[in-house]
Amino acid sequence: MQAGERLPLAYLLLQAGRSFDAVLREELESLGWPRLSPAQSLVFAFLDPGGTPPAELARRLGTTRQAQQDLVAGLVRLGLLEAVDDPARRRGRLVRLTTRGRDLSRDASVVLAGLERDLGNDAVELRRLLGDVAVAGRSRRDDATA
Q1: pLDDT at 4
Q2: Residue 125 to residues 44, 111, 122, 129: CA-CA distances in angstroms?
């Protein structure tokens, strides 16, 4: 990189997300939670409160059903997730948090709130800017599919 060159915004956003996730996973581990991979921690961000169908979870994660199944299976073995029958769909399944998974999510929320607090007053502006980025991205996708 040449002097005066700026890093692409997409790179900075990706690095910021990875940094938050790394701190989150380290702090959770220091609280006694099992070591999670970045892919495993991402699963928690895409679960609905009542559970999420596996195909929808794979779509949200941007992975194949097989990759999603592998991630979920690992989190089931850790006692953080469970796969249950979907009462709304015959033969359907839902992936949802166990009691232990909800406890981990509560601890994660505390850690993430602390990271946001560390940003001080900049957190409000950053939140606004990231909202604008999300809207712009949706708008471009909508224009591309119209």
Answers
A1: 57
A2: 25, 20, 5, 6
